[in-house]
Amino acid sequence: MNKIKKSLLAMSILVGTCVAPMAALQSYGQEITDAAGNAVDTNAAKSQSSGGGFYEIVFGSGIVGMILWFALFGDGALAIYFALDSAILIKPDKLMPKKLMDGVQGAMMEGDVVKAMEVCDQNPSAMASIVKAAFQHIEEGFEAIQEAVTAASDLEQEKIQQRLNWISVCGNLGPSLGLLGTVQGMILTFQALASGGAGDAAALANSIGQALWTTAGGLIVSIPSITIFYSLRNKANRLILKMTAMTMEILNGLRNVAVDPGAEGDAPAEAAQA
Fold first, then answer.
1. Judging by DSSP bridges, how do beta strands 39-41 and 31-33 pair with one another?
2. What CA–CA distance (Å, rounded) separates 188 from 176?
3. I need a labelling partner for 164 at 20 to 30 A (CA). Which of 20, 50, 126, 200 fits?
């Protein structure tokens, strides 16, 4: 069910980013009438007053420029998707469900380690993986349990970090794509100058403006992406530290577990009750 929701979310974001430029293309060239009933071309008026609108910026920058703009739209859509996906994942209810915590604490109060492991299996999550890793080393003593908890916490942190890294990738790609678009636009501008186009200053200024817009677009994608990345990363680190501390608190009753080298085949429940 979660995969279906994520797929629908990704599809809606990508469709939205594709519809926006197409809507601009559809609206370009539409005419309205003034008070006298004469047709007025709004886009032409905007071009004369502001040097070109959205259509000219995106679709007037050549084939390479259009490809770069659509790459920026796609990069922004992916950044939004990964940000929403990570925001949904990095929540206390997702990483450490209350049902899991209550079940494990109740089982440990009863001294039933096997039941606690069953609760972890029934409620898969990052916290369940950390607690279960500790239970699997219960026969080796409390120091081994601490090492297992630390290793499991690092593993869960790396899993979360790998998903967060995609937000960082999208944020870093934005300025690179924007800079590439600017360089491409400047190349075309200087080619026009070399071919004797220095007389039309307005056209040259418009071309340079179109080139610089790609850099602006890249920064618009990059700045929120990097901000969200560091915010979610810090939140994930705090939750991992909290889960580690809670796990050690739950297992604090096993601090005085005696290690019997000849009892390697004993069940975890028997070791906990020793």
1. antiparallel
2. 19
3. 20
H helices present in 41-141, as ranges: 42-50, 54-59, 62-89, 92-95, 98-109, 113-122, 126-135
Give whole-number Cα distances, 190 to 66, 161, 187, 195, 207, in Å. 19, 44, 5, 9, 10
Sign of the torsion formed by the C-alpha atoms of 82, 21, 55 and 207: positive
Handedness of CA 188, 192, 193, 194 (dihedral sign): positive
Give the tokens for residue 236.
């994930």
Maximum Cα interatomic distance, the chain, rounded to a whole number of Å: 101
> What's the rounded Cα separation, in Å, for the pair 73 and 63?
15
Cα(79)–Cα(75) distance, integer angstroms:
6
Residue 200: CB atoms within 10 A of its CB come to: 11
Tokens of 261: 């080298």
Pair 30, 23: CB distance under 8 Å: no
Q: Along the 274 residues of the chain, how does pLDDT read in single tens digits?
A: 555 555 555 555 544 444 444 443 343 344 444 445 554 444 444 444 444 566 666 666 667 778 888 899 999 999 999 999 999 989 888 888 888 888 888 888 887 888 888 888 888 888 888 888 888 887 777 788 888 888 998 999 999 999 999 999 999 999 999 888 888 878 877 777 777 655 566 666 767 777 788 888 899 999 999 999 999 999 999 999 998 888 888 877 666 544 444 444 444 444 444 3
Please report, as a single letter, which amino acid is at residue 57.
Answer: I
Tokens of 29: 């060239």
Residue 255 to residue 12: CA distance in whole angstroms: 52
For the chain, give the number of residues. Answer: 274
